[in-house]
C-alpha cells in the first residue's frame, strides 16, 4: 500500500506543480489546511485534465495552509506546499472563502475544526471535513449544529467507508443480508492525545459501511499492549466487532457474516472478493470513492452520511475509551448522545 500511495502522490505532484486549467463553470474548491496529504490527493483527482464522470465539475484552486502544534504540522505543510505550486496560497480563512465556492478542510488537528468550520458554514460555503470531523464528540455535535442552523452542506467521512471492497460487501451475493461483521485495522498507540478518540475511526466507519445503518445500542472494549477489541451491539440484535492492531502486521479488512454465507471483505482500495478470492490487481481506488461522494455532495447538496450517523460513530469511539477504562464494562450510547 505504501508503494501505491507514493505513486498516487507522485501523480499529484506532477499535476499540481504544472499549469492548472479550470474547467468552465467548475465549482472552485478551497483547501483549509495542508498538513494532511488527503487535500493533495483530492486536488490531484479533481484537477486531472482528463477527469470525467462524477469527478468532473470541481477545481481545487486555493489553499490556506494553517498549521498548529500538532506533531510535524509545519514540516508536513512545507512538504505539500512545495508540491502544490499551482494553487493560490492565502493567509486567512476569510481570504480563502473569498476565493472559493466550497471547502475541503484537510487539517490534521481536529482541535481546530470547530472554529474553522463555524467560519466556513456561517459564510454559507458547503464543507467537507476529512478524518477527523473534530477531536471530540462535543465539537463534532457543535459543528453539525452550526451546519443545520445555517442550512449549509457539511459532512465528514473516512475514505475507507467508500472503498469498494468494503462498501460492496453490504449487498454481496455470496453473503446476502448482513448479520454481523468482524473488522480489523491499525491502532497506533503513539498518536497525539488529541487523536485518542479517533484512532479506530477508519475501521469503525468500515464497520458501519458494511452493516448498513446506524443503531448501535452499547459498546464494550478491552485493551492490551498488542490489541484493542470492541464489541458493538446493534438495537436490532446484530453484533459487530473491531480489532485494533497495535502489534504485528497491519491490514485493513473484515469478515462478513450473512444469511447466505460468510466471506472475507476486500482490502483497502480494491474491489470485493469473488468466491473468496480478494482482488489485488484491479484498479486501485484509494481516495477516488470518497472524492466522487464529495463531488456529488457539493454539486447536489445531498450528503451521503448523515450528521446523526457520524455523531453515533464518534459516540462509539468515546464509548470504547470509557469501556476500556472500566475493565470492559458495556457503555450505553444513548447516555453519551443525550448530552450533546
Any overview of this molecule?
- The chain has eleven helices and 13 strands.
- The strands form two sheets. It has a seven-stranded mixed β-sheet. Strands 3-2-1-4-5-6 form a six-stranded parallel β-sheet, sandwiched between helices.
- By secondary structure, the protein is an alpha/beta fold.
- The chain has helices at 2-17, 37-46, 73-82, 93-98, 113-122, 137-150, 164-167, 201-211, 288-300, 307-325, 333-337; strands spanning 27-32, 58-64, 88-89, 102-105, 127-129, 154-156, 178-186, 216-223, 227-234, 239-245, 253-258, 262-264, 331-332.
- Helix content is 35%, strand content 20%.
- The protein has two domains: 2-156, Rossmann fold (3-Layer(aba) Sandwich); 160-282 and 307-337, Dihydrodipicolinate Reductase, domain 2 (2-Layer Sandwich).
- Helix 5 (113-122) packs parallel to helix 6.
- Residues 1-23 have low confidence and may be disordered.
Amino acid at each position: 500500500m505504501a508503494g501505491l500511495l507514493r505513486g498516487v502522490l507522485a501523480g499529484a505532484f506532477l499535476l499540481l506543480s504544472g499549469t492548472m486549467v479550470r474547467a468552465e463553470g467548475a465549482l472552485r474548491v478551497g483547501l483549509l489546511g495542508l498538513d494532511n496529504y488527503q487535500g493533495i490527493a483530492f486536488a490531484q483527482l479533481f484537477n486531472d485534465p482528463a477527469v470525467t464522470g462524477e469527478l468532473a465539475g470541481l477545481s481545487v484552486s486555493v489553499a490556506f495552509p494553517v498549521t498548529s502544534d500538532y506533531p510535524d504540522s509545519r514540516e508536513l505543510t512545507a512538504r505539500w506546499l512545495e508540491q502544490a505550486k499551482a494553487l493560490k496560497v492565502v493567509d486567512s480563512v476569510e481570504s480563502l472563502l473569498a476565493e472559493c465556492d466550497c471547502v475541503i478542510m484537510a487539517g490534521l488537528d481536529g482541535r481546530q475544526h470547530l472554529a474553522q468550520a463555524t467560519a466556513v458554514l456561517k459564510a454559507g460555503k458547503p464543507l467537507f471535513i476529512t478524518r477527523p470531523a473534530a477531536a471530540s464528540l462535543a465539537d463534532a455535535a457543535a459543528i453539525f449544529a452550526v451546519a443545520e442552523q445555517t442550512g449549509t452542506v457539511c459532512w465528514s467521512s473516512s475514505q475507507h467507508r467508500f472503498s469498494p471492497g468494503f462498501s460492496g460487501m453490504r449487498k454481496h451475493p455470496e453473503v446476502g443480508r448482513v448479520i454481523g461483521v468482524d473488522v480489523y485495522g491499525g491502532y497506533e498507540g503513539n498518536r497525539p492525545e488529541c487523536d485518542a478518540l479517533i484512532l479506530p475511526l477508519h475501521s469503525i466507519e468500515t464497520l458501519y459501511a458494511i452493516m448498513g445503518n446506524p443503531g448501535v445500542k452499547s459498546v464494550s472494549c478491552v485493551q492490551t499492549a498488542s490489541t484493542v477489541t470492541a464489541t458493538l451491539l446493534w438495537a436490532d440484535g446484530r453484533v459487530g466487532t473491531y480489532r485494533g492492531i497495535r502489534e504485528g502486521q497491519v491490514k485493513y479488512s473484515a469478515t462478513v457474516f450473512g444469511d447466505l454465507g460468510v466471506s472475507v471483505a476486500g482490502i483497502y482500495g480494491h474491489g470485493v472478493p469473488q468466491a473468496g478470492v480478494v482482488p489485488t490487481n484491479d484498479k486501485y481506488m484509494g481516495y477516488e470513492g470518497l472524492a466522487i461522494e464529495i463531488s456529488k455532495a457539493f454539486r447536489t447538496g445531498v450528503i451521503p452520511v448523515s450528521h446523526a450517523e457520524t455523531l453515533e460513530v464518534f459516540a462509539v469511539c468515546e464509548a470504547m475509551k470509557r469501556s476500556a477504562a472500566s475493565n470492559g464494562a458495556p457503555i450505553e450510547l444513548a447516555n453519551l448522545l443525550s448530552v450533546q
